[in-house]
Queue: 2 jobs
Job 1
Amino acid sequence: MGPPIFCKTSELFLPATSCPAAQTKSKKTLAKPNIRNIVVVDGVRIPFLQSGTSYKDLMPHDLARAAFSGLLHRTNVSKDVVDYIIFGTVIQEVKTSNVAREAALGAGFSDKTPAHTVTMACISANQAMITGVGLIASGQCDVVVAGGVELMSDVPIRHSRKIRKMMLDLNKAKTLGQRLSLLSKFRLNFLSPELPAVAEFSTSETMGHSADRLAAAFAVSRADQDEYALRSHSLAKKAQDEGLLSDIVPFKVPGKDTVTKDNDIRPSSLEQMAKLKPAFIKPYGTVTTANSSFLTDGASAMLIMAEEKALAMGYKLKAYLRDFVYVSQDPKDQLLLGPTYATPKVLEKAGLTLNDIDAFEFHEAFSGQILANFKAMDSDWFAQNYMGRKTKVGSPPLEKFNNWGGSLSLGHPFGATGCRLVMAGANRLRKEGGQYGLVAACAAGGQGHAMIVEAYPK
Amino acid sequence: MFYKIINFEYLFLIGYVCRNFTRSSALRSRTHINFGVKGDVAVVRLNSPNSKVNTLNKELQSEFMEVMNEIWASDQIRSAVLISTKPGCFIAGADINMLASCKTHEEVTRISQEGQRMFEKLEKSTKPIVAAISGACLGGGLELAISCQYRIATKDRKTVLGAPEVLLGILPGAGGTQRLPKMVGLPAAFDMMLTGRNIRADRAKRMGLVDQLVEPLGPGLKPPEERTIEYLEEVAVNFAKGLSDKKISIKRDKGLVEKLTSYALSIPFVRQQVYKKVEEKVRKQTKGLYPAPLKIIDVVKTGIEQGNDAGYLSESQKFGELAMTKESKALMGLYHGQVLCKKNKFGAPQKEVKDLAILGAGLMGAGIAQVSVDKGLKTILKDATLTGLGRGQQQVFKGLNDKVKKKALTSFERDSIFSNLTGQLDYQGFEKADMVIEAVFEDLSLKHKVLKEVEAVIPGHCVFASNTSALPINEIAAASKRPEKVIGMHYFSPVDKMQLLEIITTDKTSKDTTASAVAVGLKQGKVIIVVKDGPGFYTTRCLAPMMSEVLRILQEGVEPKKLDSLTTSFGFPVGAATLVDEVGVDVAKHVSEDLGKAFGERFEGGNIELLKEMVSRGFLGRKSGKGFYIYQEGVKTKNVNSDMDGILASLKVIVADSSDEDIQYRLVTRFVNEAVLCLQEGILATPTEGDIGAVFGLGFPPCLGGPFRFVDLYGAQKIVDRLRKFEAAYGKQFTPCQLLIDHANSANKFYQ
């Protein structure tokens, strides 16, 4: 019944550090003839903070600037060699709708370096990296900075459509009479604001609600979800204490202390977690605030280059960015199953099997979502009936999975998480000695993404 | 930890199996109910074999009570969950055949009392019972559910709760009239029982009819429907435990409005006013033709004003009386007929229709498009002009958008449904069409022209259907290279509201073509009759002699308003004069001329000059603003068109005044006579289709059950007598047909 990951409680908390790379791989490398190798020189992020804390008075491009500065400092790259800049974001600050450009200018990049912003829900930063990969692979660029930013402390709360329409009409009104007649149509309810919701436009369902239904569909219990969330927090705490989260760069926030670490890693106890009431499906649902990712402020950035360019510049490289896929499915009932669809597809594309992967880095939107994905990946029935595959791909072995914590504990700034996943994968491969990492994430709209990261040979 | 949980489940399974085993040894095997125990909660699962729905028939009831008695007797069991494992259905209602087999009202009363006793036991159960509802929970099913201590429903479109008994001419006879007002309040209870409307789960929650909602689940490790039922059961078991542990209260928090209403209704004077108002409204709407609604009010009143015992007694007695009425027999006949006409007796077509094309974006064409796109059919709407096309597209959009306003659809669903529609002026894409329905102007040469154009572009398997109300299909098919693929599909306006579809086959129409047309109609949600080709088919042909009589009666000097009130008080939903205006005077003229030529003296009576004159004066009915009445935008009261006085005076027929009753029967007997003749001639295959066509397409009084049921219930002899009397007074148009005479001379009935 249970996948092999559920073998012993103790194993959950003991990520294997011993030589997984020793086993033979299906392929020695994923390099392809006649295609440029694309490498990650390095990547950084500012600490991810629960929204409403130290970053709350800043604007999104401030966070993005901090990530740029950190990247420049870490890689010592000259601003002039950067050909192009791409950033991901989800909830847009209307004043800086192309936040990539505003941040780049503010961070002191050359005003001759073009920048654009992409959005693809929780895989926006992934999309930024992949856009960079495309620019380099097609020979258009050699050096690209990709990243992402999200500031959930401040979101655009709009006036109602009615009053917006009135204000726009007032602009056009020429005479006092016209203005007065427009104003006479004003009603008090025009003032009620429109709040942005983390809800699907197509279904009006909030993501937490969908996650709760998904967990129920796969019969994932509340206890299992709490247990998984506790694992995420415990591993994140351990990684933080051991200094493994080396992608973090400190951020001196104007008027406040320097922020040096993520601030919502909080291993609790199962007893404490069990006391919480369900957050979405009341009163009997299973998704709670403790087993969900929280609203987060943060930014990340990464330096990507063509291999020959990077070597020519004398860099020591972290990893190759290899095969990737995007998938999409029903946004109602399979909203968060992106990893299930993307994982077998990207493995097939790369010619690898699940056993070849040494480090898995999946985006943890909800405990229930992760565990439902595990069950879906481990089900022949699901593979045959919904994915058009003959057999299941299998679920990732837990000892290789999100060993340094995940979005549940580190936080999830929507637009920035993708780079964190790739850097965690690359850094883990170096630290643990593996060759292949698999990064996967789900996104609103029922989409998903997966990519293979290959460690750069030492 | 994970390990422990899974092991626990495993142990639990064993325990479950063991318990089942020890129990089953003591029991006879059951066919409708599967009974298990989870911890201290009994789970009673309903699933009647060999049926799409669960009905409260005798076997299910006795098995159910047997199981309940065991639950009440058991020391280990502290609460129970009642659930159906049949997809889309909790309990669809009581078995109405049980009533049909009763000979006296005392027998029916006894059935009601048995039901009352059974549900009283549930209501008084000290072990809480949770009804876990997914799918239809109607009639007796609802009465059962509201006898339980707690209700949980899936928030699925298929989950509906309702008391549709009134639609069958009876009342909720198992305590429903007494419990429902206490549960949802008097006004809401009256609304449910008097309209019989279905209530969706979310609304039921707001009304207090259900206590919790469960969202339907998507795919997991099992098919979504299966897992959703399983999940519903899990949730219900937890609530049942909570109730028996007194951790959950069955008391519901009432909103302010609800509190105020219930306070107001605690004042006897206010209650009396409510009864009075409701009764007035019912009398106005039913014209006293339907006894059930008034009895429902009476029974509810008795229960509230004189206490439970009097209420239950009154409910069972009135239930018995109602079940024996002609009205109830007529309505139940219609119910059975409707079930039959929702089946495809021609089997599955060889190729399912997925791509549909409609010619003509007028009222009919756009209406057909609307009921097609929302069922997932890819639909091309083609018109000759951009203006006509735009109007049609707007009609479809408005139809869908109105559903958004009523919250039956989300704006996203509307958009995605609307994307099934392609509007165009040319024949692009017709090469992929599985069926083309033409709804162009009623003109034979135009129909021939489009038929030829279409046949040049469609694939070999494509069906060509003509939406015409009177043009014979074989004449249309005469221009076809492939007449076996040509069929008539006669829709009724407005297409999205009228339930009937009349399908017309010629001698050459192939069975597969018919199967295909019926399949499309069923997909569009229609009730379908299949008739043979002939002038006016079935529906138009029955209506025409009645319309002829309408003209004649008007010529005799009867005011349109009086004629309208005579027809509506007979049970027609629309008055006869108004009907002419609604159909369109030009259309009526067209049809009368055509059918007059085909049928001669039997269609005489009224003078067609009346219609011709009206058309020449531009009095085309509602569409032109004037007909027998004047129609103005935003004006509700209808005024008689005084310009008609002159026309009517010039065509006046001087005869002795007819009594009101005679006027009514002149209209109805001509209708009925023509319907029976259609059966006699083989235009109709069955009396059932005749009744369904007349009631759902033409508004024949539902309380009479349709022309054939009417003959059975009223007596063929009496109708023949009336026809003979009118024949002597007015002429051969009243000569009864042979089949009717045969029925009068024998004890034969159309329905056995």
Job 2
Amino acid sequence: MEHIRTTKVEQVKLLDRFSTSNKSLTGTLYLTATHLLFIDAHQKETWILHHHIASVEKLALTTSGCPLVIQCKNFRTVHFIVPRERDCHDIYNSLLQLSKQAKYEDLYAFSYNPKQNDAERLRGWELIDLAEEYKRMGVPNSNWQLSDANREYKICETYPRELYVPRIASKPIIVGSSKFRSKGRFPVLSYYHQSKEAAICRCSQPLSGFSARCLEDEHLLQAISKANPANRYMYVMDTRPRHRVQSWWATQKDIGRIIVRISSKIWNDEKIRESDEKKRLNAMANRAAGKGYENEDNYSNIRFQFVGIENIHVMRSSLQKLLEVNGTKGLSVNDFYSGLESSGWLRHIKAVMDAAIFLAKAIAAESASVLVHCSDGWDRTSQVCSLGSLLLDPYYRTIRGFMVLIEKDWISFGHKFSERCGHLDGDPKEVSPVFTQFLECVWHLTEQFPQAFEFNEAFLLQIHEHIHSCQFGNFIGNCQKEREELKLKEKTYSLWPFLLDDQKKYLNPLYSSQSQKSAVLEPNTVSFNFKFWRNMYHQFDRTLHPRQSVFNIIMNMNEQNKQLEKDIKDLESQIKQRKTKQTDGILSKELLNSVRPESPALKATLSLKEQALLPVNNVLRTIEGSSPADNRYSEYADEFSKAEPAVVSLEYGVARMTC
Amino acid sequence: MEFAELIKTPRVDNVVLHRPFYPAVEGTLCLTGHHLILSSRQDNTEELWLLHSNIDAIDKRFVGPLGTIIIKCKDFRIIQLDIPGMEECLNIASSIEALSTLDSITLMYPFFYRPMFEVIEDGWHSFLPEQEFELYSSTISEWRLSYVNKEFSVCPSYPPAVIVPKAIDDDALRKVATFRHGGRFPVLSYYHKKNGMVIMRSGQPLTGTNGRRCKEDEKLINATLRAGKRGYIIDTRPLNIAQQARAKGGGFEQEAHYPQWRRIHKSIDRYHILQESLIKLVESCNDQTQNMDRWLSKLEASNWLTHIKEILTTACLAAQCLDREGASILIHGTEGTDSTLQVTSLAQIILEPRSRTIRGFEALIEREWLQAGHPFQQRCAQSAYCNSKQKWESPVFLLFLDCVWQILRQFPCSFEFNENFLIMLFEHAYASQFGTFLGNNESERCKLKLQQKTMSLWSWVNRPSELSKFTNPLFEANNLVIWPSVAPQSLQLWEDSEAYLLK
């Protein structure tokens, strides 16, 4: 609380983000220890969590007051005008302090109390059990076993304690391989495909240099290959793209000779497509620097595949550009599309998707195991492994399965959530929307396969909300070891049980679990299938959204159908009962007596049920229209019922109607 | 002329058909006067019945004795026929070319088509102007039905019956007609029951360079406003284009002569600009190999969505003037047969719940497009694959349907019909067995005796068995005005139509 000087400012204006005529709402701004709150004249509340604030900007003083622009990590942008400059300055300073915490212990999760007791909290943390998940996949088995090599985080600090490796890979091989791999992240199992007996493995790049070899590493790869009896070759996917190596090469004349030799070998290799050439050269550039890719000569039965996903810095600036374009007032269609193109965002999304599709095809069509790596093996590798598994295994397309997938490929394998999401005041160059891209890829899949996912878009948005909110402990820290040191399971709550409690909100009404049994998704990646994800990047700009939700209506219909089906069953069973009674009655010659008194009773239940049905409908509809805290959808309904001209009126106010 | 003269080879065996979404089929190809038919003659299944009038362009290729004909349809489909034998292939190709470009309307399929269904309701009489006027008559006392154009003598592109202010007699209308482009004097397009405001449409005033005036025109336009009320004239052309039009005898209303009215200029493109936009769009949709950057820049360069945005914005502006400002409006561009109709019809979709029902939408198309004289015959003569570049070919109606689709996407429960209904209308506007979209206006349709000689599209659509395909299961009547968002982030490419090859 020591950062808060002003807790309440009145007569603050909230400007409409896309209005060209400075339309605004007037209200009161409150500053609490965890949130910034704006209540407008209609008592509508806008809550902004301090942790969600990405940047605060104080603009030059205007006649109406001091403008304060806040951009949030969940893509909310608010523009306040505070009447007095001093108030604005106080709030500005407080927000700067409150949005960037120096210590983990100051994050919201450590003070958030949802009124659960210790046992409930612990049960929440035990909801997702990765050992259970590996068992579901079918490991350990005759080819794969649990390794205790990293039990004490001695080999790799950023891996989890429990790792699955080929049974024939001994501990010295593992240790040897880990020394050869960046950050000790040696090849381990990420996903096992039971029926194909093929595996997705992951690691970091080898520290091979130009001549160095590591026999243990070669052995470990052989072991992975042999652990797949279905196929004698395996793939190694390097997910990295072309760097700016050409100029780098030019300056490295002394090693130019070696390049010529290697590239001529590459040219002669029939297997290698021309397009891979540059990517290979890049990987070789890395190799000259002591890091790089596996020398093909030293690994037999291995097919190398390069896919071009850009690094975290490119992704960060790409998103930045995208958001800049979309924040423009009075954006034209052409500016929107040229901005979308120059940001490169959809190109990057497509690259991630293409990589995942390659991975899934290698396993599904060729039964080949695949080892995926990038540089450190916690960003692009996590994207590709998790998305590939999602394509292969319908379980990950359920609500619970998706949680497991995130726990496994992202949280446990050390995707650096705290650094990538900028939870603490740290290096801004470590921030990158890697996980957001993963969610977007999943969204594109839900668009192409509307029946394949148990969850809906709101689920993805909610998870995105919480990777930045720091309200729950799941995404705090950068690896499991750090999380244990922070004692997150004792001091904070897990997000997953709360999402499961709210499951109804996140269900996809079109989901068909039957048709998805063992179905591998084969998305079409023709460019035009990739669309701008408006509901993510404009989730708070409700004027841009459809005003009616098909999802809500279908949910209501489903609910009604269930009720009707239940009624049918009830009635049928009653008919059955009556029939048996009738036959009894005939036998005992008491037919007339038994039928007459009963039929009005049956009618009564029937009409009761009919009445019961209507309120169900109405209740759902009122929820949809009246509770603004619920979600975006309710807000549309709100707006819709008022039938205010939205964007149109803003752009073409009466003032501009003269010529 | 006999069709047989044009068909040199009526039948070829062992032809292979390739088309999107279906496996290749080998079968017998037959040419009739109006159809290209391919059947494998197994299980009596019909593999392909294609109207010659649906063919936009064809390409031929030869590899040895095997010929290939690639047929590009007006509904954007591309199908390929592999035909053994060079002579057969050349014959087929030239027959198709001849049959798909017949000059005479009376040789078109609708004049030969005999329906296989029972006609419950004759669509030709479903939406008579008198009936439409009846719907209003209880509320509109200041308006009347005029038969001044009974013989199509006052305005060749207007129907015989139009709704005009009661205060203006037929003689005055004749005078106004001489002052408006194509004789299109201002007529009622829509009456907003909520506040009694109206949308009128017309052709441009023929002011010319010396600022010609017409007292009757001024009187007519002012007669529609109640005392003290204001009105807006929406000119769908930008000011500079409107000014240039004066040199050719056209022009725009001087505000000094219409003191109660304000003029607003918008810029909706017309003619070949739209046609080129469609050609570019379909071309980039058909190229599946391009990378993301290329696709996005081509989509941008096509300008298709810019046109959509401009049309929707103008329609929203019109609706806003009416509903929010409580002002009547007059809409025109140059002829008043293209962008004008896009705006008047879309404004009604936004304002009038009835026009979002199937019957109401049909009535809207009948009233605001067919009877209002949108020249379908000219505009829909060719589609995205043609090279003819004729000024009068333009996807004006398709853009209107696309705009309706955009609103439908934003209000998925407020429309009684679904996307298939819009696609069906698009297909029939370009090639059909029905006479509805033949001709350029009522006068031409009368001369062709379409009512006697052809079947109406509505007779076919309005049967329960067909309607079920076009009904939106989520429809719940919504009596409010629906305001769509026109931000670029809210507009989408209508893939099912524009790029339906890729779906």
